[in-house]
Amino acid sequence: MPRSLSGRSFLKLLDFTTEEIQYLLELAKDFKRMKRAGTVHKYLTGKNIVLLFEKTSTRTRCSFEVAGNDLGMGVTYLDPGSSQMGKKESLEDTAKVLGRMFDGIEYRGFDQQIVEDLAKHAGVPVWNGLTTEFHPTQMLADVLTIEENFGYYKGLKMVFMGDARNNVANSLMVVSAKLGINFVACGPKENMPDEKLVATCREIAKEHGCTITLTDDVKEGTKNADVIYTDIWVSMGEPDEIWEQRIKLLSPYQVNDAVMANANPTAIFLHCLPSFHDLETTIGKDIHKKFGLPEMEVTDKVFRGPQSKVFDEAENRMHTIKAVMYATLK
Fold first, then answer.
1. CA-CA distance, 158 to 240, in Å (whole number)?
2. Which of 135, 246, 271, 277 is catalytic?
3. Is residue 164 classed as helix, strand or coil in its secondary structure?
4. What is the model's pLDDT at position 1?
5. Segment holding 47, helix H or strand E
6. Residue 231 designated active-site
7. DSSP string covering 223-258
8. Residue 102: DSSP 8-state
9. Of the candidates 114, 73, 24, 55, which has an alpha carbon nearest to the alpha carbon of residue 317?
10. Residue-wise pLDDT tens for the chain (330 aa)?
11. Catalytic site residue from 108, 246, 271, 319
């Protein structure tokens, strides 16, 4: 049992010990059981939280709102146009104002330094719903999904396919090192994680008996994998002009039948969502019209196939976020 997390902010998993991460996962399992059983768990009645979004989201917003309501809290949502932070009011002033009114603050947006500064000045727990560098709440949901499928996670091989320098790949590498999962970043050499972060994760991995591997070889990288993971090729906020370049660069790293066949027979597929696996989105249709691609980072067959656990993973965002809020606010 780790020391209490009450009053702590949840900004990146590098800030947490292995035992603390495991504690949050155990809490999430308890909350999932209670949710499924219909057991009321309004343990934080009377508290209020604010969700400060500079980048919109379906899963992150809904997870925080439902989790907050389940715990008995009042939830206020501020969309990108509803806050004066950085426009008419400094980040420090915004943090101090919100900290006087709310018991906790969620931030989803851009530079990691923004959420770090919010936590520095707010005086209440701040939770990272996504920054350019890290996506820690997603990682808890991913590991919970892995454990639900295998019964364990230590010693498994997880491969991230595609742009391995993004926030999801960075965070997967960190959580893998902390929990003893063998992590592989499989993508173009120019799209690998920051060297300093890789070095840090390799030192952590040594302590937990696992490895961090970087490769541009799809066949070697995905061989005997237990988890194949990918993300969209262009992140929110990046210019549309970059699509052509990313498609050329990342198409060899699409998750398809050949990739899944090269992994272990029991391997699962994960994706943080949203995904461009068909033509049922405006962007998907636009990319198909411009470049002729009917699917991008993952084929529709894999996405909808029996190895895909993406919707279990999406649901688990709610349970793990609930664990984070409860642990830091109780």
1. 30
2. 135
3. coil
4. 54
5. none
6. yes
7. TT-SEEEE--SS-TTS-GGGHHHHHHHHGGG-B-HH
8. -
9. 24
10. 567 999 999 999 999 999 999 999 999 999 999 999 999 999 999 999 999 999 999 999 999 999 999 999 999 999 877 776 767 689 999 999 999 999 999 999 999 999 999 999 999 999 999 999 999 999 999 999 999 999 999 999 999 999 999 999 999 999 999 999 999 999 999 999 999 999 999 999 999 999 999 999 999 999 999 999 999 998 767 787 899 999 999 999 999 999 999 999 999 999 999 999 999 999 999 999 999 999 999 999 999 999 999 999 999 999 999 999 999 999
11. 108
Yes or no: say if 114 and 298 are a contact pair by the CB < 8 Å rule: no
Query: Which residue out of 231, 246, 271, 319 is catalytically annotated?
Result: 231
Pinpoint the alpha helices (H) of 134-276.
136-150, 167-179, 195-207, 218-222, 243-250, 257-262
Active site residue: 59, 70, 138, 226, which one? 138
Give the Cα separation of 212 and 203 in Å (integer). Answer: 10
Question: DSSP label at 15?
Answer: G
| Sheet with 74-78, edge to edge strand ranges | 74-78, 48-53, 104-108, 126-130
Neighbouring residues of 87: CB distance < 8 A, sequence distance ≥ 6: none
For this structure, is 113 an active site residue? no
Q: Catalytic residue at 135?
A: yes
Amino acid at 219: K
Q: How far apart are CA 291 and CA 277, in angstroms?
A: 15
The yes-or-no answer on residue 246 being catalytic is no
Distance CA 270, CA 241 (A): 27
Is 317 a catalytic site residue?
Answer: yes
> In the annotation, is 288 catalytic?
no
**Could you say which of 117, 186, 272, 319 is catalytic?**
272
